[in-house]
Amino acid sequence: MKDKVTIKRVIIYLIFAFAITYLYEFLILFPEWKQIQSIGAVNVAPVMLFPALSVVITRLVTREGFSDNKLDPNFKKGKRLYYIFAWILPPVLTVAGVLIYFLIFGAEFSWEMEYYMGILSKQGADVSVSVIRKSLLSSVLSSLIFAPVLNVVTCFGEEWGWRGYLLPKLMKLTGIVPTLIISGIIWGLWHLPLTIMGHNYGTSYMGYPITGIIAMCLFCFVMGVLISYVTIKTGSVWPAVIAHGSLNGFASLGIYFTKDGGNPFVGPSITGIISGLPFIIPAVIAFISLVKDPSEAMEITEEKKHADDPEKIQVREAQMPIPKEMGENSDTKGDKGSNEDGSKE
């Protein structure tokens, strides 16, 4: 019975998450993209809020309530390390990926920032390369400190849905390994309209848009393992929000120093195969760790009962102590008609 309820909630959540997202992107963003072959970041930002909106709708529709919401920071000793891990690791891995990419494809590196300067020139901006470099350095340093904070609203919108709601329920139904694979694919397919519009990989690649959709699912699987890891270890959605925000703050770092923007399937963007290599190593370690010790993964699936939950009421009533008077009356009734020597009256 519990599994049926969980399955129902998962299905309802996914229907709302995909329906709201796809309708917005295909009805509002797609016409804009078809006209100018570009979509503004401001128009994309609301999309990240739709998973959280779907959580609210699902909890209300299914009368699930909000008691088990994974919003407790659980900022205890032993758990704080995962917050640091979530904050620092994404930019470190991003920089490592950019360095690996340019070590392999040195001819693509441009200290003069040709690609980015070309974009600024088309926009009518008249600034020197040295000014842009200083500005970029300042932006990198500020992103390291403030990116998770600045992105907290939009990233919470995604993570409360994928890691705070879907992750525990899938683990309850399928276990840790299938959950990490399935949730990664779901997260990737959720990006499908934006992938078709070239948001991550452009449109001029072999096998468009199928290969781009597959690549996005693979990327989301790798990142999903890392973000799920900090969620499971803390039992809270907030480290996932921090990790996602930190990642978004550095995602395009390497592109600024390319001659032509690079190859989205190769690098230097984090979605590239080469520049994404540093993310794979800790993802594998996290995956193995969760598989070897699934106890923490199972803890996050435990749902708190609601005050009006019939099952809880029944358990509570079963555990209620019998009043002393009732106990004495029962004993009296049981012994009635017997003398001290045990003989009947």
Give a verbal description of the structure.
There is one protein chain. This protein is mainly alpha-helical. It has a domain at 72-299. Helices cover 67% and strands 0% of the residues. The protein has 15 helices and no strands. The chain has helices spanning 2-36, 41-44, 50-61, 80-104, 114-122, 129-150, 152-174, 176-190, 192-196, 210-234, 238-250, 277-292, 295-299, 310-318, 324-335. Helix 1 packs across helix 7, helix 3 packs across helix 7 (152-174) and helix 10 (210-234) crosses helix 11. The longest helix is centred in the N-terminal third of the chain and has 35 residues, at 2-36. The protein is globular and about 65 Å long. The relative contact order is 0.14.
Give a short overview.
By secondary structure, the chain is mainly alpha-helical.
List keywords for this structure.
single chain, 67% helix, disordered C terminus, 345 residues, mainly alpha
- Cα distance, first to last residue? 53 Å
Structural class: mainly alpha
User: H/E order of the elements?
Assistant: HHHHHHHHHHHHHHH
Beta-strand fraction estimate? under 5%
Instruction: Tell me, rounded to a whole number, the average pLDDT.
Output: 86
Individual helix count: 15
Q: What spatial form do the alpha-carbon principal axes imply? A: globular
Level of helix content? 55-70%
Per-chain topology:
Elements: H1 2-36, H2 41-44, H3 50-61, H4 80-104, H5 114-122, H6 129-150, H7 152-174, H8 176-190, H9 192-196, H10 210-234, H11 238-250, H12 277-292, H13 295-299, H14 310-318, H15 324-335
